[in-house]
Structures
1.
Amino acid sequence: MIDKAQAIDLACYENSEFFDKYTRALSETNQRVNDVLNTFSGIISVVLNITVIVRGVTMRNFELIQKLKNDYRYCLEYDYFLQSSSGVELFDINGIVCILNCDENYCMVTNYCRNELNNIEDIIRKNISCNTVLINFNVAPNMYEEDIQYLNKNHYKFNSAYDSYINYKNSICENDFISDNHIVELTAHNINCYTYNDCNEKIQYRPSFERLLDVFICKENGRIIAYVENNCILGYLSYVNIFEDVNDVDYIYVANKYRNIGIGTLLGKYYAEISKKENKTAFWSNATETSSKVAIKSGFEWCCRHISFYKNMDN
């Protein structure tokens, strides 16, 4: 302000209007400096508070997230946590991770433990207002029948049960890779070379094969390997990349008249080998009774079992 005043012609100070503006500006200088400093200080305070809050949430959940990430038994739980954009909270119940989605009235529990059932229910009641909640338990296979009976007695209504399998990634030599002229990976460049009339069976809760091609191949949301004979697709296995180093089976299908001759097993082995070749772990989640048999024949090992129940929290 002083430098500016020195540069002004002295004649200007004889102008009453200019001099009045100059003296008012000079008197407000200190106050404006203080206002700027106070505003800047306020911004810094807000940023620090936000950082502390975010850091607190991160630190509180970090160990639980790492537990999900570092154990393949919890692939589905970790994937669900990552895919859920809002309304999801993590709870630690004596080493058991509980993923609660208040928006969807849904709960995933990493390890079923009868002794912790009351604690799990208490957390659900405190955070979800809906009476009926879908609870998905990760259980060991030898506990399956026993736990279902116990939960039924405690007003849990059985919904579904699925097994998941894994084929751990290992180093693979090029010579070890399965070579079969019938197995092809479908791409946008070769899909028009094949017919798929045998794959048009309507399956409940599944998109048509044509729709699957559009979503997985044309829109590049997944991959499909197919068993082809005389340019006709007789079966396929679709899969997605759920994490950077993990693939997961979406669905396996073999046309009815070509089943039980090894096509599904061949597709499963090819999926495992192509995953290992790309340095990825091959996961096979939510397998049905039939696809579980195919997974085992293809060299996959049992990983985890998920059973889900509807629970009325008033009981």
2.
Amino acid sequence: MAAASGGGRLNKAPDALVDETQTCNRWRRKPVSTSINLWMPPVQTNIRYILRTAAVGALVLLSACSGLSVLNAISPHGGYGSLQNIRYGAADESLDVYTPAHPVDAPVVVFLYGGSWQTKISYPKANYRFLGEALAARGYVTVIPDYRLYPAVRYPDFLDDCARAVVWAHAHARAYGGDPNRIVVMGHSAGAYNAAMLALDPGYMQQAGGERNWIKAMIGLAGPYDFLPLDDADLEQVFAPAKPLETSQPINHVDGHNPPMLLMAGENDSVVYAKNSRNLYARIKAAGGPVEEVIFPEMSHAKIIATTATRLQFDSDVMPHIVDFVQRSVGTTTQAQR
């Protein structure tokens, strides 16, 4: 299949630091009139103001480990279970599991982080505790794997790792209170690309010892799905093994038999253009596959993932869309009585 015309180009690496000045300006709170000249936020909004200030700092720094540390620092540290560095696969890959309190046959979300498929840009799974906590708080058993990256590997090896992580989740879900028949694969940026490829091309799951129909739903946040021609030297190396190069694009693997997919993106994302999500949505819809899209008019590449954190969910509708889609795709969560 030929590549879609007018591809949703990447602006350099998918998770490179972008200028968030406009985002910060939008979030600045204007002073309110008081009887004194020194302004302070109203008492009832102090907590929200502090969290919003922390959010601004996290967004500005999010492409650095320090930004993720801010999100982890302001996230709750209790009310969920976690196990780290569980081995999966055959190349010393490991994953972390986050569980809600007393789960019984809970949905299982496998989250794949971004980072342009490159070690120098990606940050390991431990930096996404904030998301593991946020999803566990919603009743989901959450699996966050590390996977191999360039320059250690190139396309499609990182996809094979992600598929093995999903197969692991299917095999071990019940041990953590999850239901292997309710697996959702979710990703941000390059991780959303990985999730889309597993949902669209059955070969990856089959090669890992599973089946595509084990994936009951897919959620993509600001994903690159249709980004040729490549305009970055590192990405040219990452995808050099793809022959022809068009086979590396999720949009060219649409067959109409994919699981339900939710594609979310920001209109003002200057890192991965929203056109990626629009193009893939249109291709899947034309093929008769189940797909939904949500394009936020004001949403940066960093904010779409940052506002999944429990303390920051008041600032966007990203998590409500996730929860609604998961419920409609695999059903409500279940927890044992204490």
